[in-house]
Automatic annotation (TrEMBL):
Keyword Signal set for record: yes
Signal sequence residues: 1-24
Protein name: NitT/TauT family transport system substrate-binding protein
InterPro entries: SsuA/THI5 (IPR015168), UCP027386_ABC_sbc_TM0202 (IPR027024)
C-alpha cells in the first residue's frame, strides 16, 4: 500500500514538473516570437528608409550643404537624393506635398508651415543673414539716410522687415523719413546700381561680391547683420535660413536623423574652411556662379551651424520681430516647443 501511495506521489510530481517545463517553453517561445516580431518591425523601418530626399533653394542655403551633394550620397545604406530649387514657391510646394525629408528653408517659412500643421521640425539655423546696404554716396550714419531713396527687395519679406526694423530702432521712420523702392530681386538691384539708377541700395551676397569682381565702386554703408547684433546682443546675426526635418522621420529613425545632422554640421564647417573647394562644388550645380566669385562671397554669406536647441532664443527673437511687422509671415504666432528638434 505504501509503495502504491509513493508511486502516485511520484507520478503527480512528474506531471507538475512537466507542466512547468512546458509552460516555460511556451513563454520562451512567446518571447522569441515577440522578439522576432520586433526585429522584423525594425527591419521594415530600415527597409522603408531605402532613400531620402533633401531639398534646398539656390544661393546660400544650398551652399551651406553643398559638400553633401557630392560627398554624402549614401549614409547607413540609405541613398540620399538632393535637389536645388530656383524659387521659394517651388520649395513651398514640395514641402506642402511632403516631398522633402530634410530641407534648408527660410526660417519664417519653417515656422509658417509648422503653424499650419505641416509636420517639420527645425534642426539648426545655417544662414545668419547676408544683407548689406551700399551707396555711391558717402553716408556715415542713419541720420544721413533721411530724405533718401533706398532700393530693396522682398516687400513684406525678411530683407524688407530687417531693414525697416533697423531703421526704426535708430529713429528713422521707414514710411516717412526715407523712400523705399522695391525691385524683383538681387540681379535687378545690381543692374540699377551699375546703371546709376539707384545710389543707395540693399545688396545681398553673393551679388555684392559680383559687383566687386566687376570693379564697381561703392561705399559700404552698413552690414545689416552687425547692426542686428548691436541691438539684440546676438553673435552671428539673424537666423535667416535653417535646416529642417520631417517629423515622421524623427519618430521612426531618430538615430539616422542624428547622423545626418552631424554630417550636415561638418559640411557647413567645411564650407567655412574650404571656400575655394566649396565654390567649385557650387559651380557644378549652378554654372552661372563662377567658383572664384562664390568662394569670395562665403565670408559675407554668414554660413554657420548652430543647433536649434542652442539657438532657440535667437530664433524666437527673430520670429517675434517678423510677427510684429507681419504676423502672416510666420503663420500668426510663435511656434510651440514641438517645433524644435531636440
Amino acid at each position: 500500500m505504501k509503495n502504491k501511495n509513493l508511486f502516485m506521489v511520484s507520478l503527480i510530481l512528474v506531471v507538475i514538473l512537466f507542466s512547468g517545463c512546458s509552460s516555460n517553453n511556451n513563454e520562451n517561445n512567446s518571447k522569441k516570437t515577440n522578439n522576432s516580431t520586433l526585429t522584423n518591425e525594425k527591419q521594415e523601418i530600415v527597409q522603408a528608409l531605402e532613400s531620402i530626399n533633401v531639398i534646398t533653394p539656390a544661393g546660400s542655403p544650398t551652399l551651406s550643404g553643398v559638400k553633401m551633394f557630392y560627398d554624402t550620397t549614401e549614409l547607413d545604406n540609405t541613398v540620399i537624393n538632393y535637389a536645388m530649387t530656383l524659387t521659394t514657391d517651388e520649395l513651398s510646394a514640395k514641402l506642402l506635398a511632403g516631398e522633402a525629408d530634410f530641407a534648408v528653408v527660410p526660417t519664417n517659412l519653417a515656422a509658417k508651415l509648422y503653424n499650419k500643421g505641416v509636420e517639420y521640425k527645425i534642426v539648426a539655423p545655417v544662414v545668419w543673414g547676408n544683407l548689406y546696404l551700399i551707396s555711391s554716396e558717402e553716408i556715415n550714419s542713419y541720420e544721413e539716410l533721411k530724405g533718401k531713396e533706398i532700393f530693396t527687395i522682398g516687400k513684406g519679406l525678411t530683407p524688407d522687415i530687417v531693414l525697416n526694423y533697423l531703421l526704426k530702432e535708430n529713429n528713422i521712420d521707414g514710411e516717412n523719413d526715407v523712400k523705399l523702392t522695391y525691385l524683383s530681386g538681387a540681379s535687378e538691384l545690381a543692374s540699377n546700381f551699375i546703371a546709376g539708377k539707384s545710389s543707395i541700395t540693399i545688396m545681398p551676397e553673393p551679388m555684392l561680391t559680383i559687383l566687386k569682381s566687376k570693379n564697381i565702386k561703392y561705399n559700404l554703408v552698413m552690414d545689416l547683420q552687425k547692426e542686428w547684433n548691436k541691438i539684440n546682443g546676438t553673435e552671428y546675426g539673424y537666423p535667416q535660413a535653417s535646416l529642417i526635418v520631417k517629423s515622421d522621420l524623427v519618430e521612426t529613425n531618430k538615430d539616422f536623423v542624428l547622423k545626418f545632422t552631424e554630417e550636415f554640421k561638418k559640411a557647413v564647417e567645411w564650407v567655412e574652411n574650404e571656400p575655394e573647394k566649396a565654390g567649385e562644388y557650387y559651380e557644378k550645380l549652378n554654372d552661372s556662379m563662377k567658383s572664384d566669385v562664390t568662394a569670395k562671397s562665403i565670408l559675407g554669406s554668414n554660413i554657420k551651424y548652430k543647433s536649434a536647441q542652442d539657438s532657440q532664443k535667437e530664433i524666437e527673437q527673430y520670429l517675434e520681430i517678423l510677427k510684429e511687422y507681419d504676423g502672416d509671415s510666420i503663420g500668426g504666432k510663435l511656434p510651440d516647443e514641438g517645433f524644435y528638434f531636440k
